[in-house]
Fold this protein.
Amino acid sequence: MKLRKFLFKVFLILAVVVGIWCLAAGYLYKKMNYKVVFAVSGEPLKAEGVTNILLIGNDSRTAGEDGRSDAMILLSISDKTKTIHMTSLLRDMYVDIPGYDGNRLNAAYSFGGAELLMETIEANFDVEVNRFVQVNFQAFADVVDAVGGVNLEVTNEEVLLINGYLDEYNMLENRPHGTDYLATNLQGVIHLNGPQALAYCRNRYIGTDFGRTERQRKVLSAMVKRAPWVVAHIDKVPDVFENVTTNLSQAEFTWLTAQVVKLAGYEMVQGSIPQEGTYSNANIRGMSVLDVDFKANNQYIREKIYGQSAQ
């Protein structure tokens, strides 16, 4: 009898915790914009033990799919390798775009939004991706602020460029000139707020686009580490998700947020496509592009994310 009462209490506590978690996830989800993508609406969230979600950052200043895909990161949660991969897809890769001529990868987003971009990635890299989360400039800055900012190792050269990019952001957001400027002699570990982190991510003058995408992943990694804080202080999180668009259902979003405890034990891995030594600079139809060895890069994805041995 005592054991039965104990188990009942444990069950009751778990039910309450799950209920609160679902309410919190629903609270956040309803602040986002849901967009159905009929072509993949019947496809599973997880396939072959891997959950792939395409993170898209566009340079639009409003919600929706206008603008260009300034950042494309494939977030892969792999139960096979017990890893969370963040793989940047460089926008200048020359790819086959279904229904169009070959072009840069980010042209797929311009032609057909997130749906065509996912289809293009699947066609060229043999990786199934059916879900996306898209943010614009303002949403990215707001989400960073929502997690309390991020601490990053920043060089003095990067500090000066952050201030330069803040000029454009301040003008677009009608903020006074010089708002959020960093002291020009700063370097080392620096706490960045939302607009500063956005400016840091947009820098492509140091390390070309490879360096820029690495900075984007650093910010995302720092944000992920702050996720438990967001859950614990959900009542303090402002309405930052109105410029976030996704085709994740509420049930899928809730399930993903419930994986936080399990995923804490997964290794966070970063990388980019194309891999070093698997591409060359080329000029195709007047476009400066990356000519990619798709076989080598597809094999990298299969090995690192899906845990498959080399053929």
The chain has two domains: 31-136+243-304, 140-209. Residues 140-209 form one domain. Confidence is low (pLDDT under 50) at residues 5-22. The longest strand covers residues 69-78.
